[in-house]
């Protein structure tokens, strides 16, 4: 329900977004939402195939900076082991979003402003984890194109929702682990 309330609020305010906030890019167009959807499906297919390197490469560089391939593979392997295979998923809704409209993590990290986002509500079904839970994913646009930018979808082993951290959050933390690319 929480995710649905957030999504409803997003839809209510999404068309009011414009040039008034110069820090934020224009909302994603219908074509951009379709491109973000295609990348999300590719990212999810890589997870289902156990190709965590391909999945990691389809993740935003700002997240990859904090989570190297080895760490990413460990989390995704844990997810597959604990939740079982991702049997199916359905994208229930997709909409352009601003950083301020996206939910912050459980630890209070919020999405970085100035990034073009698309948020997805997803109904997923796992082999072990029950009942099916509503999850969300956020795709972010960068020089690499659309990339996974955070959310709760497939990320339960991380301990919290993943996000592209704000500049202030990044300054507070120093990776205490490898950040090999």
Give me the CATH superfamily. NTF2-like, domain 1
Order of helices and strands: HHHHHEEEEH
Proportion in β-strands: 15-25%
The CATH topology corresponds to: Nuclear Transport Factor 2, Chain: A
- Helix count, DSSP H or I runs of 4 or more residues: 6
Decide which structural class fits the backbone.
Answer: alpha+beta
CATH architecture: Roll
Number of domains: 1
Total beta strand runs: 4
Largest sheet: 4 strands, antiparallel
By CATH reckoning, the class would read Alpha Beta
Q: Which descriptor suits the 3D outline?
A: globular
Structural notes for this entry:
This protein has a 4-stranded antiparallel beta sheet with strand order 1-2-3-4, sandwiched between helices. Helix content is 35%, strand content 22%. The protein has helices spanning 2-14, 30-48, 52-57, 61-64, 69-83, 167-172; strands spanning 86-97, 117-126, 133-142, 145-151. Strand 2 (117-126) and strand 3 form a beta hairpin. The protein has 6 helices and 4 strands. It has one domain (2-19, 27-172): Nuclear Transport Factor 2, Chain: A (Roll), CATH 3.10.450. It is an alpha+beta fold.
